[in-house]
UniProtKB/TrEMBL annotation, chain A:
Residues 37-216 form the FAD-binding PCMH-type domain. It comes from the Bacteria. It comes from Gulbenkiania mobilis. Its cofactor is FAD. This is FAD/FMN-containing dehydrogenase. PANTHER family: D-2-HYDROXYGLUTARATE DEHYDROGENASE, MITOCHONDRIAL (PTHR43716:SF1). Keywords: FAD, Flavoprotein, Oxidoreductase. Belongs to the FAD-binding oxidoreductase/transferase type 4 family.
UniProtKB/TrEMBL annotation, chain B:
PROSITE patterns: ETF_BETA. Gene3D superfamilies: HUPs. The keyword Signal does not apply. Pfam families: ETF. It comes from Gulbenkiania indica. The lineage of its organism: Bacteria, Pseudomonadati, Pseudomonadota, Betaproteobacteria, Neisseriales. This is Electron transfer flavoprotein subunit beta. GO terms for biological process: carboxylic acid catabolic process. Coiled coil: none annotated.
Length: 463, 249
């Protein structure tokens, strides 16, 4: 808890109405989308400028108060959760697009700009910001960068990291750093920009970003394909990417699809069920692209990897087909899913998936397990749904018990225990699945340099 | 019973259209084109009639540039049996389209013609009505339900204040509204099968129709930009603004 004196100090740093201590705001801004924690921040503050963020951090160093950054609150690993009286620094009010340079094709924006806002701004300039995911209508650029967000176009455009041309950050001592200044080439030693990307607010707070834009793709076509067996999925991927420029390659299970359809907003892509589905998207560069796609479909059918499929005939249909995949996360949220976000090298996907399937069938015989993910990146989202009869704590314990088995498998395949959701609180104690003890010791050393007092998002990423 | 459906190739519903610099038209270069959504509903309805055993053959017709073939292929993949393209690079206005359709109808002798109530590019909402007048056939416009019998069709229409059901003697023209059905996705095997279905071509000259436009577009302009909102301090100020500035009270 903060003392009245400290609340007063916050009021002197920001206008009174930008310091919230009411229960509703503490509840809403003390949490992200991870539903396992009880929010308990001491206050939520809404700075508008870099100077205000720097002043807040200097105040926190003097008062030894921990700060938690908060963006669109769509994180799935508890990275933006405040459970122990921290002050939440919300970037909701830092949502201005500051500058656009058509020659550099870069946009400089404040950290609180919503992803969709940047995408729309780029489109208005005849350009394209390609990082996209289901939560793009809420997630903020600062949070995307702090978690190196991935999403549905990684197979073509890479993660958020690829699109950060420059950063302005406030470190744990209140220093303001300009990192890389939007340069395409800048070999002048350690690139701290990349250190801050994916740092989850543990080194400092991102206040401004210069984002790279690109040429928009040709009209995109979407296919949804019925794949009867898990093993066929990567065969289909290999066949299609040999001859087409895929912009997305996603998969989901019939169980996942049923949850989306149950909401009654979209229709089944075709009659008949299949255990698994693939959604793939490609640029329709010219009239031969569709011919190529059709002949690939035919070849995969003949090989027995596919049994059916549809092709979008309009942008509207493409969007509706995408919802079959993008609405999964939201449609299973009421079941308090325990989310595993794991990745292996693309080549290791088939044997990994087979082994994982066996583990899950053995360990979760009574739980509904929903599979989907960016399988073209080797990334699987495994969601275990909570049975109604089971209390949340008991459910979480059961999931964590099985985690040991799942992560042993991830380790054996040299994979990542958190492909794109980050580590936060939820996956912190499993960091050693993917990072060596030497690695983790160096990470602690880096944190101590940027945040010597340990006030920046403490307890996240590193214990 | 033979059913004829007309399909138009239009700028995709989700494309943000831009006006050409000279204000003569909207720019459709390198823009995604799709089947007019109301025509998609027309094709879906025809296919459902066939699946229900009420229609025996579905003929899809389109008019315009060569690329309209793609739109017809979509109709064929959805379930139409064959297609006719009236190919021309000329601008086609609703009256010309209705006259062309009349000639196609004379050749094909369908009992039912289903068209979209309007095309989302020019929003004319005229072709179906003009066709019915030219043919002297009954018309059931803005259909949200179509119930086909042997010699008549019951059409439920969406009108101001509710629904109206009319019984039309066949042959008749029906125009579709949004709630008539939800068009299916096009299956890949059907797209491949559609390539083998017949697609015949003809021209306005072959049909003996003069398609010269009767209307001239004077100017195409972007809608006015919305001005930014303002915050008011009190309800009284809001009421004053609504009265004096917006003049809605």
């Amino acid at each position: 808890m903060l003392e009245p004196r400290q609340i007063q100090q916050l009021h002197s740093l920001l206008e009174t109405q930008r310091v919230a201590t009411d229960v509703a705001t503490l509840q809403s801004h003390g949490l992200d989308w991870t539903r396992y924690y009880t929010p308990a921040p001491a206050a939520v503050v809404f700075p508008k400028t870099t100077e205000e963020v720097a002043a807040l951090v200097r105040w926190a160093t003097q008062e030894k108060v921990a700060l938690v950054p908060s963006g669109g609150r769509t994180g799935l690993s508890g990275g933006a959760v405040a459970t122990q009286g921290e002050v939440v620094v919300s970037f909701d009010r830092m949502n201005a697009i500051l500058d656009f340079n058509p020659v550099d094709r870069t946009v400089r924006c404040q950290a609180g700009v919503v992803t969709a806002q940047l995408q729309d701004f780029a489109a208005d300039q005849g350009l394209y910001y390609p990082v996209d995911f289901a939560s793009s209508g809420s997630s903020q650029i600062g949070g995307n960068i702090a978690t190196n967000a991935g999403g549905i176009k990684v197979v073509r455009y890479g993660m958020t990291r690829e699109w950060v041309a420059g950063l302005k950050v406030v470190t744990g001592t209140g220093e303001v750093l300009e990192l890389n200044q939007g340069l395409a080439k800048n070999n002048t030693g350690y690139d701290f920009r990349h250190l801050f990307i994916g740092s989850e607010g543990t080194l400092g707070f991102i206040v401004e970003a210069t984002m790279q834009l690109t040429r928009p793709p040709a009209p995109l076509s979407v296919m949804v394909l019925a794949v009867p067996a898990l093993a066929g999925i990567m065969e289909v991927f290999n066949a299609f990417r040999q001859r087409l420029d895929l912009t997305a390659f996603e998969f989901f299970s019939e169980k996942a699809l049923r949850h989306v359809l149950a909401r009654g907003q979209v229709q089944r892509p075709f009659e008949g069920e299949s255990d698994y589905y693939v959604l793939l998207e490609f640029e329709c560069v010219n009239s031969t692209t569709e011919e190529t796609a059709l002949s690939l479909f035919e070849e995969c059918m003949e090989a027995g990897w596919l049994v059916d499929g549809v092709l979008s005939q309009s942008e509207e249909q493409a969007r509706a087909l995408w919802r079959l995949r993008e609405d999964i996360s939201e449609s299973i949220t009421p079941y308090r899913p325990y989310k595993n976000d794991i990745a292996v090298r693309v080549s290791a996907v088939p044997p990994f998936v087979e082994a994982l399937d066996a583990v899950l069938a053995r360990e979760y015989p009574d739980f509904e397990v929903v599979w989907f993910g960016h399988i073209g990146d080797g990334n699987l989202h495994i969601n275990v749904l909570k049975p109604d009869a089971l209390a949340l704590d008991g459910f979480r314990e059961a999931c964590e018990r099985v985690n040991a088995e799942v992560f042993a498998l991830v380790r054996r395949f040299g994979g990542s225990m958190s492909a794109e959701h980050g580590v936060g609180l939820l996956k912190r104690d499993y960091l050693d699945v993917t990072r060596s003890p030497e690695d983790i010791a160096l990470m602690r050393g880096v944190k101590a340099v940027f945040d010597p007092l340990g006030i920046m998002n403490p307890g996240k990423l590193l214990a | 019973m033979k059913v004829l459906v007309a399909v138009k190739r239009v700028v995709d519903y989700n494309v943000k259209v831009r006006v050409k610099a000279d204000g003569s038209d909207v720019d459709i270069a390198n823009v995604k084109m799709s089947m007019n959504p109301f025509d998609e509903i027309a094709v879906e309805e025809a296919v459902r009639l066939k699946e229900a055993g009420k229609a025996t053959e579905i003929v899809a017709v389109s008019m315009g540039v060569k690329q309209c073939e793609e739109t017809l292929r979509t109709a064929l993949a959805m379930g139409a049996d064959r297609a006719i393209l009236v190919e021309t690079d000329a601008e086609l206005q609703p009256l010309a389209v209705a006259k062309l359709l009349k000639e196609v109808v004379a050749k094909e002798q369908p009992q039912l013609v289903i068209v979209g109530k309007q095309a989302i590019d020019d929003d004319s909402n005229q072709t179906g009505q003009m066709l019915s007048a030219l043919l002297g056939w009954a018309q059931g416009t803005f259909a949200s339900k179509v119930d086909l019998a042997d010699a008549s069709v019951d059409v439920t229409r969406e009108v101001d204040g509710g629904l109206e059901t009319v019984k039309l003697k066949l042959p008749a023209v029906v125009t579709t509204d949004l709630r008539l059905n939800e068009p299916r996705y096009v299956k890949l095997p059907n797209i491949m099968a559609a390539k083998k279905k017949p697609l015949d071509k003809t021209t306005p000259a072959d049909l003996g129709v003069d398609v010269t436009p009767r209307l001239k577009t004077l100017k195409v302009a972007e809608p006015a930009k919305r001005s930014a909102g303002v915050k008011v301090a009190s309800a009284a100020e809001l009421v004053a603004k609504l009265k004096n500035e917006a003049k809605v009270l």
